[in-house]
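Worked example 4.2. Below are the chains of a multi-component assembly; read each line carefully before continuing.
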Amino acid sequence: MKKFNLMMIAVLIVSMSFGQKYFTKNGKINFDATSANSPEKVEAVNRTITCVVDTKTGNIQFAALMKGFEFEKALMQEHFNENYVESDKYPKAEFRGMIDGNDALNYSKDGTYIVKVKGKLTIHGETRDIESPGKLIVQNGKISTLADFIITLSDYKISIPGLVGDKVSKTAKISVTCQLELFKG
Amino acid sequence: MNKNKKWVYISALFIIAIGSTAFYIYKEYNRKNEDTGSLRPDYVVTASTIIKEFETDQESATKKYSDKIILIEGYLKDILKDDRGFYSLMIGDTTSMSSVKCSMDTAHNQEAASLQKGTAAVIKGVCAGFNADELLGSDVILVRCIIDQMKNNPSN
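Applying the procedure described above to all two chains together yields the following structure tokens:
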């Protein structure tokens, strides 16, 4: 009987911890590295983002396949994959971090919460500490996350040739949008 | 006169060469990705087969399929729609967490609106790789997808 009770408690703890994870496999990243004076947009979208948020711990992580970025112009996409981010060598970008002040958030109450996200971003095989303001929207048991990360491309050893220096900015804006659902594992 | 004619020919050839090069650069620079619908598939494979190949040996499967045009046959496990109305289709075995995730081509996005979960479908897309995830299940990712065929036989 004692064993059974212990087992039930263990099952409850496991199910509770899973119950606090929210996820999506359909997140989106908008990438924008357009230089301020460039008439041409250096933009891409990736709609294959996976994201997991643990509302109990505030852990947040998302991952993107580099070849999932779609540019309007094929040549730009080819240069992005082959010359800049070397997608064959470094196929994945990843963020692992925390929602700052997670304890103060009430995930059971609908509303929009302004948060700060801190963590480590890995692109092109380089990992850097990064933080960004973000928005967390709780509505009808679902959570939406929005965060804009500004990165300096040279921090991630992505070098831009002088020839396109007037079009491609030294920094890039990475906007992450995810609509998360409860993970039922 | 002959000398003048020679220069005219040389100048004309020079202008044609410069013009052709400029046209080629302009065309190449503005080239868009080809419509997936008009591309011949490099591989025709079932969802379960390609998932198994990636799970067994990711490196060799990546070499084989990455950037290639894939025609996937399988069951529609789920139809995902984002906040802007873009569809992604999850193809595979309903008993497995892993799938082939097909992100629809923007030009063909609305074709996915008529699909129903649990039906069989044939989807064509470009393989962007494999997203391994222990918690959520690992997915083969296809982008710029189009619906090649819809079948209405129920799953399982």
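Take a moment to check your reading of the output against the notes. Chain B has three helices and six strands. The first helix of chain B runs from residue 2 to 29.
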